[in-house]
Amino acid sequence: MKKTEKVSVKLYEDGYERRPDADKFGLSDTKFEIKYDSNTYQIEDVGPADVFLTSTTLIAAGAGVISAAITGAFAYLANRKGGHITITGKNGVSIEVPEGTSKEDIDYYIAKAKEIDADSLLVSGSPENRKGKKKGRI
Question: Which of 37, 30, 46 has the alpha carbon at shortest distance from 120?
């Protein structure tokens, strides 16, 4: 019997946190248990009006969910023409997947994620890759 894995996915696009779509990351609810966790917080000292932001994390569980999430993150960033992935393990160890990493390297990063007992992915679509902007991370 395969081990049930659990991973949380956070998504940043164009410098803002976005709600990750499970289907865009290959984490459909027919294969994995899916839920969303949202937290709202206030930003202080930004001017005369109160500003509130909501942080949403996709949480997926099931056998093979780590592999599916990493593969989905690669596919998502390929469609965005750039960005990066940070894989973090339960003990806080993290792996930065360099921008421009090829699809052929997916298996390497899946193996590394399993070595560090990964439980979190941070996916950042890079707005700097648009024409006229510098390349780099958010």
Answer: 37
